[in-house]
Write a structure and sequence with these properties.
CATH architecture: Alpha-Beta Barrel
Shape: globular
Number of domains: 1
Largest sheet: 8 strands, parallel, barrel
CATH superfamily: Aldolase class I
Helix content: 25-40%
Distance between the termini: 43 Å
Number of helices: 11
CATH topology: TIM Barrel
Order of helices and strands: HHEEEHEEEHEHEHEHEEHEHEHH
Number of strands: 13
Structural class: alpha/beta
CATH class: Alpha Beta
Strand content: 15-25%
Radius of gyration: 18 Å
Length: 351
């Protein structure tokens, strides 16, 4: 059924197909038809960061930027859903077209630019959800906020999201907001994360609940940069890391239509790079922080490899678009089967 639907959606522009597919999924959920589109959810709880995830497979940020489709997406069997990236104020993002498929390589290039309806809208949607899985809220900065003042936007986002999120992600790795990736390095990273960690602890004391703080990182780092990043994450004591965002390396798609478009590349060409970075990050962190693995997961085998590389959980995005809802079940089932073989050191930390 999904392969037929995908053929239709792929006749439309990327962004039009994205919106129509989500609206169709919402309609199916209201009619209680989504159970016909996906296998029953896998119940295989995973403990991480003091949370219990119903299963190890989540939806990556970017697909439901405004939390407008939580119920319908959640009905497909995701153990957790990450919404956003959301900025304090609404913003339109980059000019269209800004989303490009490369079917020959099962890939997507996007330069969306954090288009979203703003934090107030997202929180209102999260508060009225019926989806019972865990919710992550992915934070970004507004385009009009200078990079040197980015921490102000992230603090606003943290304070707004804290009462409503199960975990919060600091997105400093999108390639589509000028200067954002510079925050991943050296003193800039520490100066961003230390105030956020301090405010997280204050909010936890005030609200009597711990909400883990994660950082989402880019795949385009060398070993020295990755080690420096890992050292800072450990020093500041964030709760976890999401690896990876999209890549700027388009060498595998440059000969195909759309392959030279500006923006970040996701999908099959990212599989090996994301596996390698997960393994390198696991080594650099010495198992001290849980990793959520994302990028190029298109099969149960891909999900299993990411866990074996050191990830505790995985997220889907482009693989979900190309393969459909069945991929959620297949990946969750595969991870549940190999969980005893997962690397040690990513145990849950209590509140």
């Amino acid at each position: 059924m999904y392969s037929l639907a995908r053929k239709f959606f792929f006749t439309l522009s990327g962004e039009m197909a994205h919106q129509l597919a989500l609206e169709s999924l919402d309609a199916a959920w209201r009619l209680r038809l989504t159970r016909l589109m996906a296998a029953p959810p896998i119940h295989a709880p995973v403990e991480a960061m003091g949370l219990t995830f119903p299963n190890a497979v989540g939806l990556a940020a970017g697909l439901d930027k405004n939390a407008d489709h939580l119920n319908s997406l959640g009905s497909l069997g995701f153990g957790f859903i990450e919404v956003g990236t959301v900025t304090p104020k609404p913003q339109p993002g980059n000019p269209k077209p800004r989303l490009f498929r490369i079917p020959e390589q099962e890939a997507i290039i996007n330069r969306m630019g954090f288009n979203n309806k703003g934090m107030a809208h997202l929180i209102a949607q999260v508060k009225k959800r019926q989806y019972s899985g865990l919710i992550g809220i992915n934070l970004g900065k507004n385009l009009t906020t200078p990079v040197e003042k980015a921490v102000d936007d992230y603090l606003l986002g943290l304070e707004a999201a804290f009462p409503h999120a199960d975990y919060i992600t600091v997105n400093i790795s999108s390639p589509n907001t000028p200067g954002l990736r510079s925050l991943q390095y050296g003193e800039a990273l520490k100066q961003l994360l230390q105030p956020l960690k301090h405010r997280q602890q204050q909010l936890a004391d005030e609200q009597q609940r711990h909400v883990p703080l994660l950082v989402k990182v880019a795949p385009d780092m060398n070993r020295d940069e990755l080690q420096s990043l890992a050292d800072c994450l450990r020093e500041v004591a964030v709760d976890g890391v999401i690896a990876t965002n999209t890549t700027l390396d388009k060498s595998q798609v440059s000969e195909f239509k759309n392959g030279q478009e500006e923006g970040g590349l996701s999908g099959r060409p990212l599989t090996e790079k994301a596996n390698q970075m997960t393994a390198q990050l696991t080594e650099a962190l010495e198992g001290s922080l849980p990793i959520i693995g994302v990028g190029g997961i298109f099969s149960a085998a891909d999900a299993s490899e990411r866990i074996k590389a050191g990830a505790t959980l995985v997220q889907l995005y482009t693989g979900f678009i190309y393969k459909g809802p069945q991929l959620i079940h297949e990946c969750a089932e595969a991870i549940a089967a190999i969980r005893p073989l997962a690397p040690k050191g990513n145990e849950s930390r209590g509140n």
